[in-house]
Each structure stands twice: as C-alpha cells, then as structure tokens.
Amino acid sequence: MEENISEIFGLFHDHKIKVNLIQNSAISFSVCVEDKIGEFNYSIGANFNRLRNEVLEFGYGKVDQYTWITKTEIGQPLAMFYTITTDGIFQSDAEVLAHKNSTGKVIQPNAKPGDIRYNDVNDDGQINNDDREICGNPWPKFEIGLNGQASYRNFDFSFAGFGSFGQDVFNGAASWMGGFSDNTNHLSGYVGWTPENPNTKNPRVLYADNRNARGDQSRWIEKGSFFKIRQLTLGYTFDQPIVKKVFDNLRVSVTGQNLITLTNYSGLDPEFKAPNIWVKGQDDASYPSPKSVVFSLSVQF
C-alpha cells in the first residue's frame, strides 16, 4: 500500500480593523488533508470563520439608528433585532386580568383567551412602540466551509458545503401572512388557539384585528442556523481501448446543486439576501437558492 500523506494548515488570523464607524474583529482558520491509499485518492478541506462588529460612531452626534424591526447603537453590533417581545398566549380571562404593571393597571384589557401576551417593558400599563427591546442578533457566531474530492480508478467524486450558525432571522413572510388582519394569503397548515386546542404556539385567528397581527413582535424571530451541501458531483472517465481509439478523453458526470439543507428555520431558505445592512437578518421571502441536477458529457479529441 502506497501512502503519501500531507497536511496543510492555513494561517490563523486574529486581527482588528477600525474604519471610521465600525470595528470588525475576525478569526479565520483553514486546514486541508490529502491522502492516497492504493488507487484511492482523496483530499478534504475545511475553514472556520468568526466575525464580530461594533459600531464606534455615527458622526454628527448621532447615537443610534432605527428601522421597523432593528436598532443599531454605539457599542453594539449592526442591526440588532428590536421588537415587541411576547410571553406566550393567554389561556383564560383570569390570566388577562392578572397581566398588570407595577401599579396594578391591566396591560391588555381588550385581550381574550387565545391572544398573545406582550411584555410591558417600560411598565406604563400599555403596549406600544416604547416597549420594543433588543431581542435577537442577526450575526452568526461562526461559519464553516467544507470541500472534498476523491477518486478511485475511473470514478471521481467532489462536494462543497457551507454552514452558518448562531444567528437569528426575522421571518418576514410569516409576519405578513400569520396575522389574519386582511384578505391576503395566509400560512398553510396554520393551527390557531381554540378552547379545544389550547396547546399551540399560534394565537387565535382574528380577522381584521391587529391584536395578534403586529409585525414588529419577537414571535417572528427564529433561529437561522443551517448547513447546506451546495454541490455534489459524481463522474466516470472511460479509458477502455475501444474508446481511446476515438476520443482522447470521454467523461460523464452528474452534479446536484443545493439539494440538501439542514436547518430548523421555517422560511423558504435560511441563506437569503437581506434588503440592506440595517436589516441584515430580515428575510423578505427572497427567492430561494435553486435546486438542480445537471448531467454532463465531456469529450476531447
């Protein structure tokens, strides 16, 4: 058995870059392993990345930046989720009356069993925009990439994968379709609260009523971690004498792209393009990465 083993370790980086408004701290690490065992050859590569950012200043005395669901402030990362937070679903009229602020005022007097219980963050006895708070981080804790190639006699195989872990995602499509406040399309398979079915995470269905339909609530924030196999290829090269009489090289292959995605995110695709940097984690139902299977024939004379 012939062995030829080499391990190549990439450089380990730990650096900080200060550019006017934002300080980025990054760590990256890569490794590659190659080996040959008889007629079997393979190589596997992996890389690890971690990025942190901190807003240092806006200029002109500005200290923060708001969007519909995010807040960016000095000393914190960009585009942190900033929404009304929820605390389950009212199960009875008694729970509605018991939801009071520190002075004894009922916070949601118009709520009914099956409605969402919101947190009165500023303790003023009502729910409004002043009760929004930081409740999620759109930046992944780390990202990894994997790639590999292998060959045995006439067969060859390759793959490439990418994973992003620890980030929060705002499911924009769910926020639009899960409120039932108008006649637009709604989520299929929605199981709302009813007295006969109280053990559900979804509130009761209320048409033309915004009590449970606020778009700026933490109920639409999900864990967005994922690992995706972006490419898989299996090929075969013909080297039989009868083939060599006609072709210098003849290879057939099949390639699959984006066929496997491992995630708990309920949206179309956890790897999406956000509208802009101020809402990095907002998924506006972007078109998902296309899945495909491609058959190829390569001929050389």
Helix content: under 10%
Most strands sheet: 9 strands, antiparallel
Binned strand content: 35-45%
Rg calc: 27 Å
Shape: elongated
The total beta strand count reads 18
Distance between the termini: 34 Å
Overall description:
- With 301 residues, this protein is mainly beta.
- It has one domain.
- It has 3 helices and 18 strands.
- The protein has helices at residues 93-98, 172-177, 241-244, and strands at 6-9, 13-19, 22-37, 40-55, 64-66, 70-73, 80-83, 86-89, 116-118, 133-136, 142-152, 155-165, 168-171, 221-223, 226-238, 249-263, 282-283, 292-300.
- The strands form 4 sheets. Strands 1, 2, 3, 4, 11, 12, 15, 16 and 18 form a 9-stranded antiparallel beta sheet that branches.
- The longest helix has 6 residues, at 93-98.
Quick description:
The protein has three helices and 18 strands.
List the keywords.
3 helices; single chain; mainly beta; 301 residues
